[in-house]
Design a protein that fits this description.
The protein is of the alpha/beta class. The protein has twelve helices and eight strands. Helix 7 packs across helix 12 and helix 8 crosses helix 9. It binds 1,4-dihydronicotinamide adenine dinucleotide (NAI) and (2S)-3,4-dihydro-2H-pyrrole-2-carboxylic acid. Belongs to the pyrroline-5-carboxylate reductase family.
């Protein structure tokens, strides 16, 4: 079994550890300097506060804040037969490459790794099979150019927060009109989940799917007219654009250091 380690078991790293544990595809070592972070994953992985133990894995994933990742990678001292996967937002491959002898892959994951529903973007000249296997074990991934990583970071890395917001808005509308909060949350969240699954599985375009929900003179078309007349799409585009810009700024900050 491939040995994988996850260094940094905060929000993102712990989600990956839990998802990988559920998949059963890897022997996982979870590493964090904070024992409290390790407690959250102690049921699903070997845990250690010692990075040199995590550095023995075949695939080493670093889920460390962007400003710390270079120093952490430097200290790992990995060998050319190992693979290093960086999840750090806004940290270009060119910045990390001089600090490791391992095959380096930059990826942008998201929190849904935990439920094996992650959407990830991955970039690199050739993506080793060990990495596609790992990412595939916890969701779907697409290969992109490194120049597309800032926008991918916004769409799929930050994206879950934007979708949580939209689910909350749908829930609140239901509650305001008389649904119980718990019921409204289930209905809103399951509707997003079902709609997303439909988009992924269907041959039909999003426009065709909208059309399929809109019965002639029915309820949905009334709501869609409101959305089409609104600037909701612009607000979503602005949110994605702001996150993309911040990803590019992180890269510039790291270049300045
Ligand atoms: N939170 C998210 O949804 C996503 C985060 N990312 C990226 O993942 C990385 C981590 O983000 P979060 O999990 O949100 O941060 P976080 O702050 O929740 O977790 C970072 C963890 O790293 C640990 N850590 C710090 N220094 C360490 C060291 N030297 N050795 C071992 N562990 C160390 C901290 O104790 C903490 O538990 C960032 O680079 C971020 O850009 C990427 C996609 C999604
Ligand atoms: O907000 C952030 O910077 C990280 C990267 C993508 C999601 N969370």
């Amino acid at each position: 079994m491939v040995r994988a380690s996850v260094i940094g078991c905060g929000n993102m790293g712990s989600a990956l550890v839990r998802g990988l544990s559920e998949s059963g595809t890897h022997a996982v070592t979870a590493c964090d300097v904070d024992p409290a972070a390790l407690e959250t994953v102690e049921d699903c992985a070997e845990t250690t506060t010692d990075p040199s133990v995590a550095a023995e894995a075949d695939v080493v994933v670093v889920a460390i804040k962007p400003g710390l990742v270079v120093d952490v990678v430097d200290d790992l001292d990995l060998s050319p037969d190992q693979i290093l996967v960086s999840f750090a937002a806004g940290v270009p491959t060119s910045v990390l490459e001089p600090h490791t002898d391992a095959t380096l892959v930059r990826a942008m994951p998201n929190l849904a790794a935990e439920t094996q529903n992650m959407a990830a973007a991955v970039t690199g000249e050739t993506i080793p099979e060990e990495v596609t296997t790992l990412l595939g074990a916890v969701g779907e991934f697409v290969e992109v150019e490194e120049s597309q990583m800032d926008i991918a970071t916004a769409v799929n890395g930050s994206g879950p927060a934007f979708v949580f917001y939209l689910i909350g808005a749908m829930r609140d509308a239901g509650v305001d009109a008389g649904l119980e909060p718990d019921d409204a949350e289930v209905l809103a969240a399951q509707t997003f989940k079902g709609a997303a699954e439909t988009v992924l599985r269907s041959e039909r375009s999003i426009e065709e799917l909208i059309d399929a929900v809109c019965s002639p003179k029915g309820t949905t078309i009334e709501g869609m007219e409101v959305l089409w007349d609104s600037t909701a799409d612009e607000a979503v585009a602005d949110a994605v654009g702001a996150a993309e810009q911040r990803s590019a700024e992180l890269a510039a900050d790291i270049d300045d250091d």
